[in-house]
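User: Hello, can you help with two protein structures?

Assistant: Certainly.
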Amino acid sequence: MTDPISIARVGLVAKRGLTAASTVLGELASWLGARGITPVFDEETARLAGPAVPHRKVPREQLPGACDLVIVLGGDGTLIGMADLFASADADVPILGVNYGSLGFLTEITLPELFEALEATITGTASVHARAMLAVRTWRSAAVFADHVVLNDMVITKGALSRIIEIGVVVDDLPVMTIRADGLIVASPTGSTAYNLAAGGPIVHPSVDAMLLTPIAPHTLTNRPIVIPGGSHVQVRPIMDGHDEVFVTFDGQSGFPLRPDDLVSIRRAARPIRVIKSARRTYFELLREKLKWGGA
């Protein structure tokens, strides 16, 4: 439960090209307007809604400063993109994720639950879950080269034709390991059910204050995933020669090639993202359904 959120403007974001959302966008705009709330569309979503739907329209990158709540229609990837955008803008705006298709780990509200969840959010009866994010800084030639904020993970991987790569890992200035592997995942608890899970890492409840270090196909089988305190400072350095191709990616949405002597630093981000939870299922019910575990 949470205190009622003062909501005057609601951002509406749909997955790019999701024409199936057009009707729902119109219904949402009417529902909000009837309650004196202004719907605010990003430009691409406005095109999906069509010219007959009354709304404000702003570029997607301006949504953090233009709304008090954002509704995301699509899947986990769409919500992750918005979470990264809002975190980079340091905006404390809750997100209500609605999944088109099967349930998502983040977009866990189904389309039939949408208006029930929205009503609960406005009246303050919804459950709002704070999800820790990771602040990732890449250093090059002793200067900051790039800053990113991610919800799921930072991943270092070898190129498609590269051999196994070496990666040095330091936590709180203490050497942890040098791994020879296809790569390394540094994940938040939310990201534990993403690439980390596919790579054999553990599932960590999103309320646990932790960070995960998961090697990808390690050459030495004793290099196992490690769960460390969420307040840790992780430094990752690829050990490369001129023939290696090594890439870093951020939530699977952006990235770039690393150079020899680059250093990637990961800490818990200063601000979490707030996600509206479904009132109809617990986290463990969500796991059972998504991972086909069957009944308890």
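That covers the first. Now for the second protein you mentioned:
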Amino acid sequence: MTHLALPNASHSNAELFLKLALASGILVAVLEVGYLLSSPLPYDPIGYVVGRDFVNTWLGSRLALTGDPGAHFGFFAYNAALKEVFGENYPTHIWSYPPHFLLLSWPLGLMPYLTAYLVYTVLGLVLYLAVVSNGERRADHLLLLTLAPATIVNIWCGQVGFLVAALLVGGLLQLDRRPILAGVLFGLLTIKPQLGLLIPLMLVLTGRWRTIAAAIVTIMVLCAATALAFGPGVWTAYASDAMPVQSQVLLKAR
């Protein structure tokens, strides 16, 4: 009798998980809607522009269109550019992405901030769902992925989580199917290098040499294309102006 009851118990647990996950997602979504309704758009109640972290993505994209984004990587120069757009009292930020991130984001700089934020969010969500669903189109899975608290928070804060998740999960899914494509995706993941620190170790330990080679070539192409687009000085500016500030912020956060 115990053996016969197991399938029912498993089905019951799955239903409970679905209900709890859906409820938590809806709760977080309601909180975000409340946050937006209480905000003096385009700013939130404490002075940040809606989308918060997307400010860096958008402003970086605008600076890329000047042809010399590296001139603004320093703390004071970057915040001067920020205050020029959003006002003198806007909270301070730091530039925190490697220069080749701008090769992907620059079209956003052609749009007004809120339009760019909406396009960025919608396209990022679609890409994320397409990759992590791994070809499945089950409505309940897609609903849970869309309403997952992490998804809502990523939208709320305007982070690069959708793109990073798509690159990381996509690379892992393609390791055995298409090792070269996996390497390309891992190479692109260097737009947020701290989130993939263990990937090279995993690739070496499992002997994924074709994937490693593809990742190295991808990184070299990205670096060269960035130098061609913005001048080689963009890399020295990143190393001398942006990275030290990032290190200080990380040390203070510990």
